[in-house]
Amino acid sequence: MARINSVGIVGAGAMGRGIAQIAAQAGLRVYLYDTAQAALASARDSLRDTWDKLVQKGKLEAPRAEAALQALTLCEDLAQLRDCDLVVEAIVERLDAKQGLFRQLEDIVGEACILASNTSSLSITAIAAACRLPARVAGYHFFNPVPLMKVVEVIDGLRSDPAVGDALAELARRMGHTSVRTKDMPGFIVNHAGRGLSTEGLRVLQEGVADCAQVDAVMTGQAGFRMGPFELMDLTGLDVSHPAMESIYRQFFDEPRFRPSPLTTVRLAGGLLGRKTGQGFYAYVDGKKQVAPEAPPPAVERMPEVWVSPARPEGRAAVVELLERLGAQVQQGDRPGDDALIVVTPLGEDATTAACEQGLDARRTVAVDILHGLPEGRRRTLMATPLTAQAWRDAAVARFSSDGAPVTLVQDSPGFVAQRIVATIVNIACDIAQQGIATPEDIDRAVALGLGYPKGPLAMGDALGTARIVEILRNIVRVTGDMRYRPSLWLQRRAQLGMSLLDR
User: pLDDT, tens digit, for every residue of 22-58?
Assistant: First the structure.
């Protein structure tokens, strides 16, 4: 297939402008079309301003900025795209609109011209079904803001010519972006994999395990994510996030792993969309998130001795080492003394289940999450049973925060907060690999770049231990009976065989 040198872009909104910017900066001839003249004028002014600022900041040489501006042609007639090698649509997210546009374009452009859709949720195969030459139609899904989000999904429809995807991938590299290849499935890679963080975070909130600020603090301070689920949804806007959640859930025929939450349905109806409306899961004043300061650790007159359950030897060893470093008196023996704080280290279980199955006094029992950052002084998460007395809760928080590390105490939950969210993220990514939607390498690249996770979900599973992830998921299923947590076969087999999740 011939090298792409000229790109037509239909739609001069944020996405269209972003694609036009990176294409012009890469030396391509760019033809930007919109039905509204005002949108074209606004796009031209916006792009000129952007290039001026990049020059001022030393991020773009002045001659390159001028060349990019000269490479841009504003088009008021769709026929002006007739000589383009590629046309990318970035219009309204409606199947009928995209099909109608591509039918129009087929009467204008040459037969060698590639037609690409920037859709984030619609089937490429369905869009191409309306075309005379469906083989030249593919998905080319950029992320907003396009110049900063350095990843693009290249989507092969069922009738797409693989050479078309190859040409789009090569063009992405020329424009400074990483391309990832995906089959035509709901949510492609990024929106599909992204269900783990948002939907499970909402589930934690809905169950009353923790509030929004606590969940976000655990996911950033303990699990190492750049943003927690509620910060992310406020940034994206529920008018974008909720329809994506519903769409993917329905397109997978009500697959439990993707089950949305009524919490976002109500908030969307009430216009609590996030930053753009000044009120989402958080309130925003002058664009700044309003969060109440965390309460200081409770003052405890006499620290009790601590007994750590030996039921999970690995967990016990890690907690005992930390407690001794914190100056705690750790009781030895198979059973706790009558005056000891009882600590359990469950994976995927709640504190109640751990206490009852081990025959422990639930009034003195507190669970600690050992999956992330326990010894490093990052945020630590504790969990009490409904029976745990306030004095023992206070003693646990005071002890585990005595080195200055922040501590979050949550309500009883199978899998705490980070365990269940991270395990869900890993599990969904494994199922994407199982279905052959994308290669493991592309799954991790897409998610790390598109969602800003600390690492790709499959690498995350390897780092935490595949056997541990499987155990967490199986225990959550055992406690809750909810099949949303059933482990992917891809994950189970690799855990059994000791394989990396990145192995095909």
Answer: 999 999 999 999 999 999 999 999 999 999 999 999 9
Widest CA span of the chain, in angstroms? 84
Pick the catalytic residue from 6, 118, 153, 475. Answer: 153
pLDDT score of 1: 79
Residue from 118, 120, 160, 241 carrying the catalytic annotation: 120
Q: Which CATH class is domain 6-184?
A: alpha beta
Give how far Cα 223 sits from Cα of 147, 237, 348, 369, Å.
28, 23, 16, 11
Question: Pairing mode, if any, of strands 151-156 and 178-183?
Answer: parallel
Q: 118, 141, 231, 349: which is the annotated catalytic residue? A: 141
Active site residue 153: yes
In whole angstroms, what is the distance from residue 78 CA to residue 106 CA? 11
Separation of alpha carbons 133 and 155, rounded Å: 17
Tokens of 464: 């935490």
Q: Domain residues of the chain, as ranges?
A: 6-184, 192-290, 306-405
pLDDT tens for 379-421 read: 999 999 999 999 999 999 999 999 999 999 999 999 999 999 9
Phi and psi, residue 9, nearest 5°? -125, 125
Cα–Cα distance for residue pair 150/228, rounded to 1 Å: 21
* Rounded CA separation 421/443 (Å): 18
- CB contact burial 119-145 (16+ within 10 A = b; e otherwise): bbbbbbbebbbbbeebebbbbbbbbee
Q: Please indicate whether residue 231 is annotated as part of the active site.
A: no
Query: Which residue type is seen at 438?
Result: A
> Buried (b) or exposed (e) across 174-185, using 16+ Cβ within 10 A?
ebebbbbbbbbb
Spatial CB neighbours of 230, under 8 Å, sequence gap ≥ 6: 201, 205, 212, 213, 215, 216, 280, 281, 282
Segment 271-280 shows an average pLDDT of 96
Active-site option among 6, 191, 309, 427: 191
Residues 6+ apart with CB under 8 A from 324: 330
Multiple choice CATH, 192-290, 1.10.260.40, 2.60.320.10, 1.10.1040.50, 1.10.3720.10: 1.10.1040.50
Spatial separation of the C-alpha atoms in residues 3 and 338, rounded to whole Å: 77
Please provide residue 280's backbone torsions phi and psi, each rounded to the nearest 5 degrees: -140, -125
User: Is residue 138 a contact partner of residue 124, using CB atoms and an 8 Å limit?
Assistant: yes
Q: Would residue 475 show up in a list of annotated catalytic residues for this protein?
A: no
CA distance 343 to 374: 14
- Concerning whether 120 is annotated as a catalytic residue, the answer is yes
- DSSP strands (E only) in 438-495: none
Distances from the Cα of 86 to the Cαs of 76, 107, 111, in angstroms?
18, 14, 11
